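sry for the spam today, last one i promise. struct tokens for design, 313 residues
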């Protein structure tokens, strides 16, 4: 049986996605997806993880044991010991030693990384960030995710927490609540003249905005200003070549891109404003697992940082 392949896994609070890649980083076959069931017993989520990997291998037509497994998951993470610590999205797996599980059940070592960082790397190499040296990846969904790829490598920081900005303040809230789907809902309720108790999802508010609902249109523009402020702050610190947006809320980018760009440029240095670019993801929900597999492949090959950025090691 051949083992000349890698597995990439995107472990989220809603779904688990997996794909098979060759040793050059090319995906083989379709992406497989199953629900995470994060509010149920750990065994349920772990069984679905094994099932989704089995499905991905069947899609790719491969058998045997992968050389290595890359996984992107929401933080905080103990990457050194491959332990999960996200109480919000994965409450049933807090403290779980996912690395030991992967080695035991899949027969390969695990490289664990932040899911937004994997998103940034996937887009930098195979998606909307191709050809750019510094790619800032932002995911807008049930939360706010942030990751950075420099020269096609994930930048993790001194304690492997680079990009963990969810609880940084923006306005009267934080990045996670103001710039996620919750932020759209919050703005809609603020701009709703009647039915203040009505609860809709970001998707439903997007549908209303497309139909011309005034409160929904205003909500998306206000949301865009908050996202722009958050991204503008990040750009002032990181000065990326391009910002790539992903996640379910980014599917409505046309509704909030203009206020986002205006808001971001307002707080950026004048020499950076014209160069500021924000683009939608090309890989969609396959970006995270693609980046996870690429990160694992780089670790397998022992790839080092480019000397022109940080000097020789």
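last one done:
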């Amino acid at each position: 049986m051949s083992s000349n392949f890698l597995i990439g896994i995107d472990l989220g609070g809603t779904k688990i996605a997996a794909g098979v890649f060759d040793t050059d980083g090319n995906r083989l076959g379709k992406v497989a997806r199953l629900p995470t069931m994060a509010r149920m017993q750990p065994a349920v989520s772990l069984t679905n993880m094994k099932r989704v990997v089995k499905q991905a291998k069947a899609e790719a037509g491969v058998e045997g044991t992968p050389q290595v497994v890359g996984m992107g998951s929401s933080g905080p993470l103990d990457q050194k010991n491959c332990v999960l610590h996200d109480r919000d999205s994965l409450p049933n797996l807090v403290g779980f030693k996912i690395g030991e599980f992967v080695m035991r059940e899949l027969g390969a070592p695990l490289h664990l990384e932040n899911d937004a960082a994997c998103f940034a790397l996937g887009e930098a190499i195979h998606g909307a960030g191709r050809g750019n040296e510094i790619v800032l990846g932002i995911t807008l969904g049930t939360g706010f995710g942030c990751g950075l790829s420099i020269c096609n490598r994930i930048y993790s920081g001194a304690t492997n927490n680079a990009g963990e900005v969810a609880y940084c303040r923006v306005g009267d809230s934080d990045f996670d609540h103001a710039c996620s789907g919750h932020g759209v809902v919050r703005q809609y309720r603020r701009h709703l003249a009647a039915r203040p108790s009505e609860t809709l999802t970001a998707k439903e508010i997007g549908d209303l905005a497309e139909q011309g609902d005034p409160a929904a249109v205003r909500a998306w523009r206000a949301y865009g200003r908050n996202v722009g402020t958050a991204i503008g702050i990040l750009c002032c610190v990181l000065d990326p070549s391009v910002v790539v947006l992903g996640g379910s809320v980014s599917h409505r980018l046309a509704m909030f891109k203009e206020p986002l760009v205006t808001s971001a440029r307002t707080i950026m240095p004048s020499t950076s404003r014209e160069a500021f670019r924000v683009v939608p993801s090309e890989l969609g929900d396959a970006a995270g697992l693609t980046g996870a597999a690429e990160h694992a492949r780089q670790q397998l090959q022992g790839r080092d940082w480019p000397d022109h950025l940080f000097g020789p090691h």
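Residues 246 and 284 are 7 Å apart (CA to CA). ok im logging off now
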